[in-house]
Design a protein that fits this description.
Length: about 1500
Amino acid sequence: MEKVQEEATGVVATLASTVAYYLAPTLLQVSVGVGVGGEEDPSAVAAAAYRQHATLHTTSPTHNTSGGHVVLTDSTLTNTTTTPSAEVAFVNGETLLEITPALYHAASVERGLVVHVCNSGQSFGGDDLFALREAGVIVLFSDRDSVYDTAISAHIAALRTKRPVVHFFANATIHDVVDPALLHSLAQPPQQPTHPTPTTTDTPTTEKETESESKSENKSENKSESKSESKSEEAATTAKFGSLYLRTAVALATIDSSAIGREVEQVFREVSSALRHGSGSDRRALEPVEYIGPQQPTTVLVVLADGNAELLERRIVTDLQQHTTSTTTATSRIGIIKVRLYRPWVTHTLASALPSSVTRVAVLEFFVTGHNSQSYLPSPWGGPLYLDVVSSLKEGEKQHGSRTDVSAVLGRVRLVQSQQQQRPRLDDQAADEILLTVDGMSFSDFTVSTATTTTATATLQSSTVTTSTVAEPLSGLYVDVLHQAFGDKLRLISAEEPTAAAHRTTEYGYGFALSKLSELKKTQPQSSKSQQSFWLVGGKDLQRDEGLAAVHHVLASGENINLLVVDDTPIQALRAGEKERSVSASVVGKKDLGLYAMNYGKAYVASVALHSSYMQATQAMREAANFEGPSLIVAYAPASLSSSALSHPTASVSASAALSSLKDSKMAVDEGLWPLYRWNPALEAKGKEPFQLDSERLRHQLKQFLERQNLLSVIVNETPRLAPHLAGSLQSDVQQVHQSNVASYQRLARGLKAGKPLLILYASDGGRAQDCARRLAAEGFKVGFNARYTALDDFVVADLSQEPTVVFSVSTAGQGEFPVNGVEFWKSLKGTTEAGLFASVNFAVFGLGDSHYWPGDDGLKYFCKPAIELHEKMVELGALPILEQVGKADDQDADGHEGAFGTWKAEFWKALGAGEVEPEQGATKLPADDIIKIESNYLRGTITEGLLDASRGDMPSERDQKLLKFHGIYQQDDRDLRESRRKQNLEKAFIFMIRMRAPGGVVTPTQWLVTDRLSTEYGNSTYKLTTRQTFQLHGVVKRNVKNTIRDINIALMDTLAACGDVNRNVMCNPNPDRPGLHAEVYAFARELSRYLSPHTRAYHEIWLDEKMVAGEAVQDVEPLYGPTYLPRKFKIGVAVPPSNDVDIFTNDLGFIAIEEEVEQKGGVKTKRLAGYNVTVGGGMGMTFGSKKTYPRTADVLGFCTPEQAIDVAEKVLLVQRDHGDRTNRKHARLKYTVDDNGLEWFKEQVEARLGYPLGAIRPFSFDTTGDRLGWTPSTDPNRSHFCIFIENGRISDKPALALRTALRELASIHTGEFRITPNQNLIVSNIKSEQEAEGRAVRDLLKKYGLDSTSDSSGKFSGLRLHSMACVALPTCGLAFAESERYLPTLVTRLETAITEAGLRDEAITIRMSGCPNGCSRPYVAEIAFVGRAPGYYNMYLGGAHNGTRLSKLYKESVNEETIYGILGPLFKAFAKEREPDEHFGDFVIRKGVVR
């Protein structure tokens, strides 16, 4: 008689088992025999068939009864008291994932269990197989004609191997009922093969091999008994750690049988034997892997042996029968390999099944979506079958010499389930279209819809994995799992969706999730995570510091929101950080967030790796969903080092990349580079351990966290609290004692060491004097001296008397002053008067200076003055000079200080009797600053320790002072107070400047308010809008620095790379009148800033108390910068013609946006961004008197498309990194690299790294560098913009204008954004119309504070003032020689008299002032510029182009205010009278020959 396949499995189970379970979906209400949508549940039908022949019951007390049969949870299957060989389970497809942890356990205890799974027509794969492929179970597939035989084989395999067997079966019919005697006879091991093994499938089995199999089988049974004790121990170990995932199922490894062990190979043979050895006419012989098709195919389609595979097979066989061998059709070139035995998987099985003519292998995978889920696609990385096939081909090539001309591609078929819940199936028409497409190898995704009937049609959707790119967020694989695990419950919010750039943030996603959760609470007040599962997928901003605030908000919210964060750090980068800490091409990811989140204590946290342990990942997701409160899952999806995914968020994922991800995940977990764990605080309340370790290796930082958690319960409330002043005093006393002990120990150690002591002390601002000291010490070691070197301020003057030989290496600062790290030593030494104190000391002094730094006689007066004074003082105190003269190095020499240093060294060693000393190899190639960077442990140094030193207001270490710049911090002192504090014998009034990073100058009102608050709470109650479109806070004392940076990061800003030898804040034209173009270039500026940011985690560890979950205390690499970072700072700007407000030619690297006109439908012409002209070699800094240093405007290098721009920026930066001058910091900027080597050479270097040439330069023009002040309309009629003039960018309240208060009130009501301009002004952007309350309120505030009259035409300010710019300079900048910001407004006021008299009050003339020659205000491209030379004196420059394209020329040195007025007054009058139409002042002075 005829029975459906559900009944077949039930009948077979009756004959083979004494205990049966029916497991219905735990999340759905399912009655007897009824499934989703009213259809019959096939698993329930199979169970019903079983009940007809036996009693369905359970041995577990954990069950409930529904409709007359037993419904069990997965806990039933973990019961080990039943007889392993007598169990069968009928499982609905939706339930399989839920019971997979139980299958792990059953495999670990060798429990012979058979699980029959049916989803009635749907193919199986994806998440089901990802879970089972590592569970240690046997996995079988059957189509309609083989379900009966495969079911028998499943039971036989379970009896023989004592392992769980999962049998996936599809719709089918059978023609008879199995004979019970036959079944039990088949369960016995076969003695000989009953049929010849086809050569096109597995390796041929000879009689000897069959005999060997039989013996091996018997041995295996005996071995299983002898191993029972070790298995019990292993199970005990698993239980001890409280995890199902510690035991690795070796049988699941997709590698060659020679490498997987005898036991796994034996299981494969047992199952293969059960499939092949039929008996009589009642049972067919089946192959584990079977080829069907023509004899000489060129393409093979690999599929799982289910119902859809059977349909494709039938179409091929039918076509072959209908055509002659001479007829060429699609199917004459295509064969099918049906995979019946999926686990265990042995590589050579597939390789043996491939006909020799095959050159292409296509893996076809099926997946099911709902009727309204057309947009959902599985990850293009490929499913489990695809990964195994690719692995087999690669491993076969490696291990067995398989052909290398076979390539594999992936195709996917979407089966769309109708609203009537009809299960979708493949039909003949769809099968034909699939085969035609496979023949052409233009692989696509097929959509098979069953909206009205059970038949289907297929429509092609262009998408391929191997022949085109596939845009895929990092989270793609994990999102697939979320869909599988939660189905309709899932509420997914992805920060990676291609929405507006401003919305591609986790913070935005968090806000959106909160709004949706709030709506749900209103409509369903009793809703909980069990009803809805909200998942927020973290965006790319989590690679930046601002993303940390989003994580903080999620964790601190207490809401039922789950945050998924995916880290794509390649395993090579993890290893590099673990072992070598070397440079590696990686993107340091987000793995550190786990420990950060666990410190909250009230959030569920897990670290997962899908390809390493699929079930651990799904288990974590389910636990997170059930946890009442926020959760964070940090997931690993490693990218290939060769994958462009590291560089761009929309990267293609190739077959090799998918395979690499699979292998790398496993290796990362196995090597302990990525720990798997789960942290559930809810378990603590139940008296259970909250931490579950799911991998075998626990990293050091994770151990520290767990140890601290245990320790806290002991020491809580027992820590003594000291008053701050007592604690500070105690710390100071301890430090003094410690320093004294260290000094004593060092003296003792030196006495024990061989060699004469040689102490080298240095004082250095730029690092050259320090480098000389280091090199001298290295040479001293070579000739037998016990040499050491340190900064002057780090040595106690009194201890000099105990040093027999001392060398001083001293630079010159300012007007003959000691560098900052030698001031205190000199002060102490200068105050010493005891004659003969250093009578036993021999010394020498080497000085560094610039004889032309100051003009005229002052140059020689201040040249090497500190070195000369130090030499004289040492002689005065009785010390004996080794060399009578001070060594002097002059920056004016052709070779800088090197020549003089070499000559002086030779004389010095000769005087000591050391003879000729071989110079240190490569000494000039590794200067002091690079050593500081290398030894800083990726910018950590001892900053943390220095911040804790409350005994002083500065950072004790000069190295830390330099490293702070990389963190956006400058140590300064109030120079207005220097003299008075010196007289009081007090240390300087040390303060810190903190510079934020705001690419493109765009900030939110909230960020503005935070900055305003911090300026009062921690700063000097003012803040500065900088010339590079960001904020600076001034006057922050050391104890408040960390709190300030913490609050900045909470506001989603940061300070990393705002200073230092890295790329700094990327400038971008605000363009409020062209919102579309601005949005595009602004998005580019932000992405470029992110891409070029340092990757060190030091910033987070020092300022945000971040701990690393994986890795030792340090696991850093810098893929772009390397450990030495760049030779000097690197600045980038993006300009949009005709505005040159960013002064594009003053940047190291510039991008000039080029638009092109395109014609739309209907003949409408619009403009779009065509790309960028690239400029290189701009820079403002110089040194007075040094011909080797100078300001320079950039050259245009070529053209690039928007897609190439980031790549071009990276390559330009790398050329500078590798070829920039590291021997002389004053000559280290990119402009000198270009000039030293030539523009063509530089272009060749860039293009060689790019691998393609830059395009031809496109035409462009600029008209001004100024801002469009006042009102600017928007393309949106309901929005407008207002640009406020802010003189020199200083935000403060003054009697005449309460500017800070006005802007604070404005930020409190404005919902648009603020845009800081490169001219230090402020654009209030996207102001609502006057018809809206907010728009009226904003306008009222502008009027109230008089800000509405700051436009060009208002007449309130002169054109000269509106185009003025000044840097900070005195009193805080340590480099300033003269005033700037505090003085320029006064000078402009006086000059306004002259321009008014000349009738030029409204004339736009750029005037800029800088307190030193470094040129932060970009003075050298202004029409009028003043560069501070000394207090009250400036070098005067004239003739810069009004549009910023030409440098100004030095007109006169050392001018004061009277001289300035005397020069400019007559010039203004001449300009008014003699100018040509539309001629600007800068062009006029050039034309008239005022400067040349």
